[in-house]
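We emphasize that the prediction below concerns an isolated chain of 336 residues; any contacts that depend on oligomerization or on bound cofactors are therefore not represented. The input was used exactly as deposited, without trimming of termini.
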Amino acid sequence: MMKAIKGMLLAVVMFISTAAAQTTIAGGEYWIDGAIGARQALSSGASIDISTLQPGLHTLTVRVKDSNGLWSNQVARIFFVSPPGRTDATSVTVCEYWLDGVKKPEYTTLNTQIIDISDLAPGLHKVLVRVKDDLGIWSNQMSRTFFVAPGAQTDATTITKREFWLDGDIVHRQTIDDTPAVIDISALDAGLHMMTMRVQDDKGIWSNQMARSFYVAPLPAPTATLARYMYWIDNDKEHAVTGDITDDSGQLVIDLEPLALEDGDHTLTWLVGDSKGAWSEKVIETFTVVTTGINNTRMPTNLRNDNWYDLSGRKLNGMPTRPGIYINNGRKIVVK
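Result of the prediction step, given as a token string:
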């Protein structure tokens, strides 16, 4: 019996795994006879202790969770616990059946049986059958749907109507006009769902319902883009400058002239924010402000003969004479 339960679990997990093939299974749980409050964790290759169960029929329900944290639909299987010391049954002794939920007489002779359906109205009907073995144990019920045609009816020739509904919501079923049809599932939550369909022929007879499960994958998170910036000079965060990033050039020109910075070393602290509201880490850069002119230069003498470069990396012929940002000795220098 334990092997049977393990085999059943493997089949259930494989079934659910196939339905959710776009993700991986991260965990699972099961419960017996509808006792969801006493559910237990389920892992691959797990054995379930059924030693405390009474002999007879029981139900095992399983569900699994994927790597996105979504739970699957529940899958249930019926199993039988044999009485202690019981020997296997050898023959079927009784058969009984129901038509549309009404129990009919038992058969005690089990040759080929003919069920009288002459008094049934035209349309769909259901027959339930179960049998009892020589140990007095009844089998599960087996259900089959069948159709009784109206008298003197000619065969249908075309399908005139198609309709479907999602997740058992037959009240809000929808009609399909064309085939093949495109069904809008954009409003469904991520996870497992079920679509049920039936068709009607030119005699006005509906077919059996046909159901199929399908999986809606979670939408990928939208990519964040740069949306804003912030910077301040030295430690003056109180007067930080903020603004929106309106292009994707990746460049931001900061005009330091109106700031009237004193000559010497300064720091520029900046950070950027994305379209989701998150800010980057702070970046701190050091630069030097030097005032120069034709008649008056305040640039230190020891810097005048060093190599100077513009921000494009082009070497200058000596000290710059025009305002701008330059590179000297590996530092960014602002010339006013």
